[in-house]
Design a protein that fits this description.
The protein is α/β, with parallel strands linked by helices. The protein is built from 13 helices and eleven strands. The strands form two sheets. It has a seven-stranded mixed sheet, sandwiched between helices. A four-stranded antiparallel sheet has the order 8-9-11-10. Helix 7 links the parallel strand 4 and strand 5. The longest helix is centred in the middle third of the chain and has 33 residues. The chain starts with 10 loop residues before the first helix and ends with a helix.
């Protein structure tokens, strides 16, 4: 198998981004305000908590965007609202020719949008589809990979779409923001959407960045007090954004170290190892035998998390050993029997390698014992 993982920021690049986060906070908040939990309810001047409005200005500055809006519903809710702001029921939307993430597929159905596929790995095909389908009204581009052989470049896809059609572009930046050097908006998209929970922030809060005109529409529609992201939640988003870049860069470096060690043959019975964005950037471990399910059961007993909480949330400390992603298994159903994905989270390479090795030894012992 050949994969095309996205480039992760180095620790030094992530450190500079952390510094930019703090600089942006100091430009908007007074010191005593940072050491508070913020306000609640609808302020007359902002139509939302003042702290939330300030946090949104900070986030827009961090990502060089015109505006930002914090919304409920996590990353999926952000995408839903972003597409609603851009498009109307019955509109055609350009999407990648690949399995669509389940909640995004639900969103397209809920909004009555009609997907038109083009292979984003082939810019010529994008141009052909846009040339043929003149009534496409928008585009959705997922930053991370939807199938193992995806290799498209976000900026190139956006530039190609814009060269052939004057339509708004929304990017799903979940699992990519603060790992990749630039967001979809920084690559030229109109809106980028992602979850704060995947960036060490609070549960259920989504982030939309991009064109102010779309954000203004959403602010007018989200006027109910119960729909507002409260001040303390907005502060927690900023806390997460402060610590996420360096933590994620370290995590990426551990994945790279594990890949090198497994490819070098450190564990007998491992056929190969790859880095891939599925959807987080993870280590894919391929075994020589169809033992993936058994290894996952043993890894959990050895301290590995068996499933995600929020996919890199603040609660996920130990490495996660999990089945391959649904979109990857749709592309090749046989992979699920011989391959697992591992996200190091806050663990080091030695811990990840030890758990893989010991889990495989336990599986082998169980097979030998049953044969006897």
């Amino acid at each position: 198998m050949r994969t095309y993982p996205l480039r992760s920021m180095t620790v030094e690049e992530a450190t500079q981004l952390q510094f930019k986060v703090i600089d942006s906070i100091t430009r908007e908040f007074e010191g005593h305000q940072v050491l508070s939990r913020g306000d609640l309810g609808l302020s007359p001047e902002a139509g939302k908590p003042v702290t939330t409005r300030k946090a949104e200005k900070v986030i827009a500055r961090i990502f060089d965007a015109e505006a930002c809006m914090l919304v409920r519903g996590a990353g999926s809710g952000a995408i839903r609202l972003g597409l609603h702001a851009m498009m109307k029921c019955g509109d055609k939307i350009l999407v990648h020719k690949a399995p669509i993430y389940s909640t995004t597929k639900t969103t397209l159905s809920m909004l009555g949008l009609i997907p038109v596929e083009a292979d984003f790995n082939d810019c010529v095909q994008i141009e052909e589809v846009l040339g043929r389908e003149k009534d496409i009204k928008g585009a959705l581009v997922q930053y991370t990979r939807q199938k193992p052989d995806d290799r498209y470049d976000m900026e190139e896809v956006i530039r190609t779409i814009q060269s052939r059609a004057s339509v708004p572009i929304l990017t799903d930046d979940n699992y990519a923001v603060m790992k990749e050097p630039r967001t979809g908006v920084q690559c030229g998209a109109d809106l980028s959407c992602f979850s704060s929970f995947k960036l060490l922030g609070p549960e259920g809060i989504g982030i939309i960045i991009g064109k102010k005109s779309y954000m203004d529409k959403l602010v007018l529609e989200n006027y109910s007090g119960g729909m507002q992201v409260q001040g303390h939640e907005a502060m927690d988003v900023l806390f997460g954004l402060t610590y996420a870049p360096v933590a994620l860069a370290i995590q990426a470096s551990v994945g790279e170290a594990c890949t090198k060690r497994l490819k070098a043959g450190e564990i007998a019975g491992v056929r190969d190892a790859f880095l891939a964005n599925a959807q987080s950037k993870v280590l894919l471990v391929e075994f020589e035998e169809d033992i993936a399910g058994a290894v996952l059961r043993e890894a959990q007993k050895l301290g590995a998390a068996p499933s995600p909480v929020g996919a890199e949330s603040k609660y996920e400390l130990v490495p996660m050993f999990y089945r391959i992603s649904g979109t990857f298994s749709q592309a090749d159903p046989l992979l699920e029997r011989r391959m697992i994905r591992v996200n190091p989270m806050r663990a080091g390479a030695d811990t990840v390698i030890r758990i893989i090795k010991e889990a495989m030894e336990r599986v082998k012992a169980d097979v030998s014992s049953s044969d006897d």
